[in-house]
Automatic annotation (TrEMBL):
Family to which the UniProt record says this protein belongs: Belongs to the binding-protein-dependent transport system permease family.
Domain ABC transmembrane type-1 stretches: 75-266
Keyword Cell membrane: yes
Database matches in PANTHER family: ABC TRANSPORTER PERMEASE PROTEIN MG189-RELATED-RELATED, SN-GLYCEROL-3-PHOSPHATE TRANSPORT SYSTEM PERMEASE PROTEIN UGPE
Cited InterPro entries: MetI-like, MetI-like_sf
Transmembrane segments: 12-33, 74-99, 111-131, 143-166, 187-210, 247-265
Membrane topology: Multi-pass membrane protein
Keywords (A to Z) from UniProt: Cell membrane, Membrane, Sugar transport, Transmembrane, Transmembrane helix, Transport
Protein name from the UniProt record: ABC-type sugar transport system, permease component
Short name of one Pfam family: BPD_transp_1
GO biological process, one term: transmembrane transport
Organism: Hungatella hathewayi
Length: 281
């Protein structure tokens, strides 16, 4: 009986590991294809697409794509949108969740249910009203307007995440701080926000990567070529160089490189945050 149970566990582990390996290959193979061919001349890409050959290694594609995409300007635009968006939806999302958490009233409970329901609402359903509102407020073709769109998209999920995490914390923390003379805002800023570093890190990674990689919303909001994000610049760059796969692969690598470096620097903190969140949840 013990051998049978042990065998089932080993079989289950083997199947799980096999599925994870297949998923990993599906994710890594396109990325490896881009990286491997970004440093090859165009003539070698069709002949040796998966072969590693240092004799044909070249940085000319990277240098050319960096220059023709006007990479520094596009990087600054994407970084500005990322910072503004993260500041808005983290501050507003955490404050909204804090208000729902401390207000023991049916209205706020129903408001929380509404936020949860809005998670299922696709962006396309609200795209036209949001863009129309931006134009009415003269915020189209503007980084702040683009950040507001992202904040509206992510707010339901962020409120849901912060509220669930706050409800796992004892209310005695707030009561003790209130007895010591702290205002509600001071309790939020000095008691709860330090405890919310885990969920804040998860929000930054998950939603920050989405903001960086998104193309749909900038195409709708940003029209000025000087204010185009990296994804827009890569899109225009690829459209104008159909067939020049060497330059397109180099541009794609330059576009995703900042997020890869960010994850490599923060992977330990991110994994710790996910593990801590799963334990508290």
């Amino acid at each position: 009986m013990n051998l049978s149970v042990r065998g089932k566990r080993r079989l289950k582990a083997a199947v799980t590991n096999g599925i994870m390996i297949v998923i990993m290959v599906f994710y890594l193979l396109p990325f490896w294809y881009v990286v491997n061919n970004a440093f090859k001349e165009r003539s070698y890409i069709s002949l040796q697409p998966f072969t590693i050959n240092l004799d044909i290694f070249t940085l000319d594609n990277i240098i050319s794509a960096f220059s023709k995409m006007n990479y520094p300007v596009a990087f600054f635009n994407s970084f500005s949108v990322l910072v503004i968006s993260c500041l808005i939806f983290i501050l507003l999302g955490s404050m909204t969740a804090y208000g729902i958490y401390i207000a023991d009233h049916k209205f706020f409970n129903r408001l929380y249910v509404l936020f949860v329901a809005l998670i299922a609402l696709p962006f396309q359903a609200a795209m036209v009203p949001l863009v129309t509102l931006l134009r009415t407020l003269h915020l189209s073709d503007n980084f702040f307007g683009l950040a507001l769109i992202y904040s509206a998209m992510f707010m339901p999920f962020i409120v849901f995440l912060y509220t669930g995490f706050m409800r796992s914390l004892p209310k005695e923390l707030m009561e003790s701080a209130r007895i010591d003379g702290c205002s509600y805002f001071q309790v939020y800023a000095y008691v709860y926000m330090p405890l919310l570093k885990t969920v804040t890190g998860i929000v930054l990674v998950l939603r920050g990567v989405y903001v960086w990689n998104d193309l749909q919303v900038p195409l709708i909001v940003i029209n000025n070529p000087v204010r185009q994000t990296l994804q827009q610049r890569l899109y225009v760059f690829a459209q104008s160089r159909i067939g020049n796969f060497d330059l397109v692969f180099a541009g794609a690598l330059l576009t995703c490189l900042p997020m890869i470096l960010l994850f490599l620097m923060m992977q330990k903190s991110f994994i710790k945050g996910v593990m801590a969140g799963s334990v508290k949840g």
